């Protein structure tokens, strides 16, 4: 699973879910779903989210520990 720091980053920027949604052109419900891991954003949307926070993609999204371990 790919994890994210969106909720933490929003708090650091004093943004609501609606604020972030407006900045990246999606619904507040979509932001909620991404934060709760019910929806994995497309690569394009993930880049938009990272850009909104002015961060590299890997500072917003990261793999769950063990995701890339050999089976």
Can you lay out the helices and strands and say which pair or pack?
Layout: E1 2-4, H1 6-13, H2 17-24, H3 28-35, H4 43-52, E2 61-63
Antiparallel strand pairs: 1-2
Structural class: mainly alpha
Order of helices and strands: EHHHHE
The stretches of 5 or more residues where confidence is low (pLDDT under 50) are: none
Mean pLDDT: 95
CATH topology: 434 Repressor (Amino-terminal Domain)
What's the architecture in CATH terms?
Answer: Orthogonal Bundle
- Gap from first CA to last CA: 15 Å
Instruction: Give the total of beta strands.
Output: 2
- Major beta-sheet overview: 2 strands, antiparallel
- Specify the number of helices: 4
Gyration radius, rounded: 12 Å
- Say which CATH homologous superfamily is assigned: lambda repressor-like DNA-binding domains
Cross-sheet strand order for the largest sheet: 1-2
| Beta-strand residue percentage | 5-15%
CATH class: Mainly Alpha
Number of domains: 1
Query: Which geometry do the CA atoms define?
Result: globular
3D structure, described in words:
With 71 residues, the chain is mainly alpha-helical. The chain has a single domain (2-63), classed as lambda repressor-like DNA-binding domains (434 Repressor (Amino-terminal Domain), Orthogonal Bundle), CATH 1.10.260. It is 48% helix and 8% strand. The chain is built from four helices and two strands, in the order βααααβ. The chain has a two-stranded antiparallel ribbon. The longest helix is centred in the C-terminal third of the chain and has 10 residues, at 43-52. It is globular and about 40 Å long. The mean pLDDT is 95.
């Amino acid at each position: 699973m790919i994890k994210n720091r969106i909720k933490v980053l929003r708090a650091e920027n004093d943004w609501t879910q609606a604020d972030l949604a407006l900045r990246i052109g999606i619904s507040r419900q979509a932001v909620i779903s991404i934060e709760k891991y019910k929806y994995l954003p497309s690569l394009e949307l993930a880049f938009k989210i990272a850009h909104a926070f002015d961060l590299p993609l890997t500072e917003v999204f990261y793999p769950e520990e063990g995701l890339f371990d050999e089976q």
